[in-house]
Amino acid sequence: MRTFVDIHDVTHVYARAEDGLPAVERLNIKIQEGEFAAIVGPSGCGKSTLMKLATGLQFPKKGTVVVDGRQVGAPVKLAGMAFQNPTMLPWRTTLDNILLPLEIVEPHRSRLRRHKAEYVAKAEALLAQVGLKGQGHRFPWQLSGGMQQRASLCRALIHEPKLLMLDEPFGALDSFTREELWCVIRDLHAAQGVTVILVTHDLREAAFLADRIFCMSARPGRIVAEREVAFPRPRDLEITYTPEFSDLVHELRGHIAQARKAA
Amino acid sequence: MTVKRQLVLAPWIFTIGFFAIWEIICRGFGISSFILPAPSTIMAATWEYRNQLAYHAMHTLWMTLAGFGLAVVFGLLLGVALGASRLINAGTYPLLVGFNSIPKVAVVPILVFWFGVGWVPPVMTAFLISFFPIVVNVATGISTVEPEMEDVLRALGASKRDIILKVGLPRAMPYFFGSLKVAITLAYVGSVIGEQNASNVGIGNLLTRASAAFEVPLVWAALVVLAVLGVVMYMITAFVEQSTTGWAQRSQMANA
Ligand SMILES: Nc1ncnc2c1ncn2[C@@H]1O[C@H](COP(=O)(O)OP(=O)(O)O)[C@@H](O)[C@H]1O
Ligand SMILES: [Mg+2]
Fold first, then answer.
1. I need a labelling partner for A64 at 20 to 30 A (CA). Which of A148, A166, B134, B199 fits?
2. Number of domains chain B is built from
3. Where is each ABC transporter domain found (chain A) (predicted)?
């Protein structure tokens, strides 16, 4: 296994930050290829900033970000992203929303028109994988929040990204839907072997899904704890009711509480 | 009667009721038709002057549509520029707002100095008065793209141009078509103002001449023709809005 995302000693100050304080400071994170990493931390600690740094939407003031062996100096183009807000375009059908990244990324961009059928088939296969079989013709606003979030995952994966970035993707969903989607993500990760970075403030979510969990301190964010999660895969939702799982969540909770107190 | 049918009938009932009350007041109080002619008197005048009115109304219609067409083209272009670039937006906003605050009646004499009396001043007035709402709406639609959506696309290597074409412009369309309803009404006001002061034809010019000659029923007939044309043009743009960006209304209802 090799290191896929290497954030080394990164300090970032937003150009438009009013107080001029860094959003993250001396951040060090190493994520292996194919690994499922989770980042947890209090809100405003710089989790989304970390995502932007790793995808080349922001460049660090100090330190280096290396993704897939290359130092990041522009948007990385190999990432798929999904957010809490599914941001589906209401004038496109769900299927056309999912195909949107292909209209941007090469080589798909120039192939899309001639090989449309092939890509549509791929999108429909993805829809089936997330439990939305045959729903592609519907408009996003005809889908429930959970369904939109599933579609948004398909959109993040359609161009076969090597890196999947999930920024609190299930924050707005009820707990049943959320657990369903945990399983969807778990299966997608297993099937596609993609490296995943999941930002969340749900500690159970992190513990259930991740191979490795990073806890961040309050602003300016830095890593206060790194924890490997050894539960064997494939994991069943049942493990969330085992004592080992509770212990892990409890431990994480301790790190976060300390990080908040330190602030 | 269902609510839907009531909604369809309501505009007719209210309009007819309005004119009926007007008629009753004029007759009941014996108001002189020099002060306020009754609707029946105005109808009779409209019929009497129908050829003249139709001829001038056609002219006004053309002036309005020409000015409106220019406003749509320039409004879209400028709106996209303002929505796409924060620099252009910040730089031109004071100019635009300042320009928009000038009453367009005050500009007509200048147009006459430049182009003389004829079709240019009404078209230009219609254009100048109606392009501002289009610019502002298109710019708003483009500049309010959700930051997450922008991140999703930028992380894929999308250029500014990609983002505007794929997201900004389609998203601005409901704003654009919404602004057309306002713009067509303004363009219409503009062309009439232009005609009143700087043209030898058109309803505006007819109004000026009729009031100078104290032909009160003709003045009122011209006003009624103006109102009817205005309603028709508004309804056409509203219909175009409905049929092109129905998704915006439906998606909003779904969210509500
Ligand atoms: N575009 C920006 N300009 C200035 N400051 C920002 C910007 N985005 C985030 N910040 C600041 O950086 C800090 C970290 O933000 P963020 O990464 O969004 O936190 P999180 O995702 O952990 O809640 C916050 O204090 C926030 O106010
Ligand atoms: Mg965030």
1. A166
2. 1
3. 5-243
